[in-house]
Prior knowledge:
single chain; alpha/beta; Rossmann fold; seven-stranded parallel sheet
Amino acid sequence: MPEGRGHCACPITSLTLLVSLTRMTLDILQELDPPQPAHWRHHLLLLYKKGVYLSHTGGKLFWVLGLLILCGFLWTRKGKLKIADITDKYIFITGCDSGFGNLAARTFDKKGFHVIAACLTESGSTALKAETSERLRTVLLDVTDPENVKRTAQWVKNQVGEKGLWGLINNAGIPGVLAPTDWLTLEDYREPIEVNLFGLISVTLNMLPLVKKAQGRVINVSSVGGRLAIVGGGYTPSKYAVEGFNDSLRRDMKAFGVHVSCIEPGLFKTNLADPVKATEKKLAIWEQLSPDIKQQYGEGYIEKSLDKLKGNKSYANMDLSPVVECMDHALTSLFPKTHYAAGKDAKIFWIPLSHMPAVLQDFLLLKRKTELANPKAV
Length: 378
């Protein structure tokens, strides 16, 4: 067999030969016209027709398979195409004191971007500047303070000049109190929603003119908690709302040449997911609960739930780089994705589960919850 012809050609060639031989046999039998039993001719005719059908079907399947392979190759190749130059581009990142934002600021500074890193604390700003080049700039920013956000946007405008802002990465966020819904107050919901949603919107609205000028990118860091209500509290509603804001912004900005992407990390070991702080908050709320609710949940509930919370550490991704790699692709690819799942748990479990029927979601997520002592004691 000549080089370059694979196994796919063999069945098609064999079928073609079978069809030709069957046709020749029928012609010879008709010419000689010997006293052949009628059923032999009938079987040969059926074999000929089946051979023709299989030959045509095999050929179509071969071309369809080839087309699918070509589309897959082009799709993969498209994702690897990058923008030409990054050394003249400015990016603004919120939440750079620690975690994803801190790693992103250091990574993009090394790559050659002009990074403007927003930190909440002076200590976070000082530590970041000590680890990066002189090109990186820091600014103190509380995303929940509208005046602070406006002043920062004006300062950034003076920094970037006519180039505009190539990238806006909305990364700042807090978990708030993670506890059953009937343990919480409105204030417990308000804090994470103020930071994760209204803070993100405030920064976006103030920076958007600069991003439109550069025809750049907006990257919103959401969570798998924006796809599935994994735990009670204000964190999940805030992230669900971020997903909605992200989608409407993406469609509104398309006409301006601005790409908007959403990153959905799974469980990662960051200060955001610190089990010690989460435990302290949960214990503080437990102490303030009414006797009725404590009776329903049981005195042993808090210890069991805290043990499960500690057990979640074993499932957390220790390496933060997958999230920053998603940011990098969204910033530098000619064809950025609309959504990025970051972390093996997000790709294998959380995101697929979010597409499943509610009955299956409830079954799997309720298995993770601690059993109540006496839920009927109302």
